[in-house]
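> example.struct
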């Protein structure tokens, strides 16, 4: 059975997205390449957004003494 392709880290995805944006901003690619790079950039942007959302959800939870997770809320005074 073939080994699954490892998922890129957030940092790797963000760096690749930054490089794609620089290439697109340069205006030196032909239309077909621009469309390809734009499509790839949109996929990376979604991947980064999804990872940030997941990280935010995890950070907003706190482990209670009994081992259960619950949303973390700061009481307003």
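> example.seq
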């Amino acid at each position: 059975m073939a080994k699954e392709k490892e998922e890129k880290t957030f940092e790797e995805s963000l760096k690749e997205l930054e490089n794609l944006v620089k290439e697109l901003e340069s205006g030196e690619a032909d239309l077909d390449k621009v469309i390809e790079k734009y499509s790839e950039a949109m996929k990376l942007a979604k991947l980064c957004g999804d990872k940030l959302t997941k990280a935010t959800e995890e950070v907003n939870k706190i482990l209670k003494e009994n081992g259960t997770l619950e949303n973390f809320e700061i009481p307003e005074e």
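> remarks
The chain has a mean pLDDT of 82.
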